[in-house]
Amino acid sequence: MTDSAQNIATTYDPTEIEKKWYKTWEEKGYFQPSRKGDSFCIMIPPPNVTGSLHMGHGFNNAIMDALTRYNRMSERFAARKKLVAQAEAEGWLDQIQPYTLKPPRGDRSGVIIEPLLTDQWYVKIAPLAEPAIKAVKDGDIKFVPEQYSNMYMAWMNNIQDWCISRQLWWGHRIPAWYDAEGNIYVGRSEEEVRAKNNIAADIELNQDEDVLDTWFSSGLWTFSTLGWTGDEAKDKENYFLNTFHPTDVLVTGFDIIFFWVARMIMMTMHFMKNEDGTPQVPFKTVYVHGLVRDGEGQKMSKSKGNVLDPLDLIDGVDLETLVQKRTTGLMNPKDAPKIEKSTRKEFPEGIQAYGTDAVRFTFCALANTGRDIKFDMKRVEGYRNFANKIWNATRFVMMNCEQQPIGQEIRQDLWELPEQWIVSRLQKAEAAVQQAFATYRLDLAAQAIYEFIWNEYCDWYVELTKPVLNDENVSTERKAEVRRVLLSVMEASLRLAHPIMPFLTEEIWQTLAPMIGIGGETIMLAPYPVPNPERINEQAEADMLGLQGLIGAVRNIRGEMGLGNARLLPVLLQNATDAEKAQIARIEPLFKALAKVESITFLTDAEQPPLSSSSVVGHVSVFVPMKGLIDPKAELARLQKDLDKVQKQHDQIASKLANEGFVAKAPAAVVEGKKVKLAEFVDQLAKIKANMEQIAAL
């Protein structure tokens, strides 16, 4: 094995790779703004608990408050009885009548919830809503997908005054103070209130105990996190505020468009102004995604026990730990046994470590324009396999390129169909990914990357290079150029996939890129691929499509007839047009080499082909004559065994479906599944019998 190949481990292990590169990126400051060129900023949502309190304060106060409220509220029903007795004794109780009520109860405690009328703080919202509505109407703020602007407008055009006070222990406290006579003073601090209203130090002031609504505090997020003070002179000198505000993109779910997005737009446009004094928008684009649900489309919640922690998918988790996590802190502890049972059934071995890249790719691939995203563990597993595919393809490339001549400049004169095709397909993949990112269709970006790397580069181009690199008759120059194309297309593919799969691509790029003279500290600072229309070759793509179709047809026939891969097959072609014949002539050497074909013969439309196994590619009929390729008696015996096996399976299911008791008692989904399986067996029986008839004719 060569030096570079040894740098790439035999198997892909994401855990160590991710630890290594995350540490490196942090140490080198790659997560910090460069302060060079135009800024691009994405909004990051704030945490739910705001203010300066840390978790210890919140935990301690929450426990004390819960215990106090519980003991106080436990006495309310006894107090009512005493109150009724007092009313009767004093003669001011008119009558008692029975009523049937359905009082609301707490979902956790189960105790009755009663309304308590208190004074609240409100914001007169109409003056704030007006410019926020105009910003979306004028296109200063755009929603992606666009239909969510209708949801925004429906709320904003019917907006009501906003109650902003909450009776909680955490949050920004209402900046209002009261004196003994109930007078209210509002200011930034008690000191400001006293100074502004000439209140002496010996007059006691008490701050309102309510806190601001979470969404009020969150609505200040875009500018308050960048050091905004409200002082015009100071804010003009604030680098971060002037560089990163307004931000470019806000990424959020549709369920908080009104709660958070609308409030940020209103608050920002009220407090932040452009140089000409007009209201400044907080962001230019609102990218709205769906909500992640489980594989059945159910909302993930603790009470259902269907929550998945992304870190468990990334790092893995054993079964017992997973069960403990899913059954701890339930709103209804009685559900714990049911949740434990379903968890053990769904994850009997726990969850293996899939790595960050596989999980990220899954999220991107699922990010369609719908309101609901069904999360499927099989997709994570599939994209982990995709990461392995990239890894193994890299090892092959390394082993065939290290310490071998590699072209250092593009030599299109040495390109043949495979190189013309893969370079052309790369340009189209780059264009598709570029368009997908521009329109916030991360699912289409992931799909284009996946299809190009797996289906075109790995499955076809890598295979097409093997005969070339192993053929002693191929010139050294041609081999060197093939190696260069292998490396350069993979290097471009790594840059294409990096935003979605950062760790894997960084690890490979560091070793592969220098082999074709590309340097740099990190792939994240390398230029993103840009398509070159001049390298698109439509004829090469058409020829390759024809080649793939013919190879697939012959491979399917070979599999149906049970022929080994080593045996060369004669192929008969019929109904080919002159253009198709010209195309087949261009691809004939590759077709023969990859499909293991010894000869190609064109039949006229009037000719009757001999008894053959056949397929169709476009308008062209493909025949492989059976005579001389198989032993009819042995093949009939093999097919008879297959027939007997499938017939037995068919009869078992048919018997069940004929049983009225089974059909009546079994779940509808089970019965439907049996019917589908029976239809499959009927189809298999028909095919086996047809094959037996053909073989018998020999």
Note down, in words, how this protein is organized.
Its EC number is 6.1.1.9. Residues 20-74, 114-376 form the Aminoacyl-tRNA synthetase class Ia domain. The strands form six sheets. Strands 1-10-11-3 form a four-stranded parallel sheet, with helices on one face. It has a four-stranded mixed sheet with strand order 15-14-17-16, with helices on one face. A three-stranded antiparallel sheet has the order 7-6-8, with helices on one face. The longest helix is centred in the C-terminal third of the chain and has 29 residues, at 668-696. 25% of the residues are buried. The protein folds into five domains: 3-32 and 373-398 and 410-536, Isoleucyl-tRNA Synthetase, Domain 1 (Orthogonal Bundle); 122-174 and 210-289, HUPs (Rossmann fold), CATH 3.40.50.620; 293-353, no CATH class; 540-630; 633-696, Valyl-tRNA synthetase, C-terminal domain (Helix Hairpins, Orthogonal Bundle), CATH 1.10.287. It is of the alpha/beta class.
CATH fold group of the largest domain: Isoleucyl-tRNA Synthetase, Domain 1
Task: List the uncertain runs.
Answer: 46-74
Relevant CATH superfamily of the largest domain: Isoleucyl-tRNA Synthetase, Domain 1
Number of distinct beta strands? 17
Number of domains: 5
Number of helices: 26
The residue-averaged pLDDT reads: 86
Cα(first) to Cα(last) distance is 50 Å
Tell me the CATH architecture of the largest domain.
Orthogonal Bundle
Q: What is the C-level CATH assignment of the largest domain?
A: Mainly Alpha
Q: What would the principal axes of the Cα set say about the shape?
A: extended
Rg, rounded, reads: 35 Å
Report the sheet-strand fraction: 5-15%
Secondary structure category: alpha/beta
